[in-house]
Amino acid sequence: MLYKFFKNKMETLRSISYVMVLSLLVIFMSVFLSYRKIYANEQAFMERVDSMQILMTHLKDQTDLFESIFDSISHSEPLNMRWYNMKLAMVMVESEFKDNAVNPTSGAGGPFQHLPLSKNGYVREANRLQDSIFFTDMDRFDFFKATKIFEIVNNHYNPQKCIDVAIHRHNPRAGQWYHDRIMRWYRYFEAISYQM
Fold it and tell me: Is there a contact between 150 and 122 (Cβ–Cβ < 8 Å)?
């Protein structure tokens, strides 16, 4: 009788211990999963912070680049805001202010997307029109030199600085969409320059 009593107590204790172990296991798993979730969130947060730092660096680089574009374009000629804004609009349409932009089809490159010397384009024409500076293919990727190339050719063929002529001369095969897109950006830069 005493044996049965202890045996029943032992069975009860064993079942209670199973329940306790299971409940502890559930608690441990929930804590583990919550820490894992916190860790995953922290890792995702750190990845977001890293991507934000990369973005901020990229934006700073773009800001520096934009300032150098303004400097190089504004110093290339006496200040003529309409012509200046047209060049900004053209660079925006052609390369989105990326000095290392290259068209894989035509080989055009740089901010104005000048064709290489091997093709009949602005670089070759600028070299033909004057002999004080010899421009190379790499000069297409330098904002100041690319702007100078653009100016030399336009000073010869478009001395009145007519915007429509400059747009058509820059890309004669492009359709009306090209002209319209440059003019949209031109109006944008004009609006900004009036606010300054």
Answer: yes
**pLDDT at residue 116, as a whole number:** 87
**Domain layout of the chain by residue ranges:** 1-67, 75-195
* φ, ψ (nearest 5 deg) of residue 176: -65, -30
Give yes or no for residue 2 having a pLDDT over 50.
no
The single-letter code of the amino acid at 122 is Y
pTM score: 0.60
**Buried/exposed code over 163-194 (b: 16+ C-beta within 10 A; e: otherwise):** beebbeebbeeeeeebbebbbebbeebbeeee
Identify the DSSP state of 102: B
Angle between helices 81-95 and 2-74 (to 10 degrees): 140
Task: Residue 102: name the closest of 92, 88, 112, 89 by CA.
Answer: 112
Q: What is the pLDDT of residues 76-116, one digit of tens each?
A: 444 578 898 899 999 999 998 888 899 998 899 999 999 88
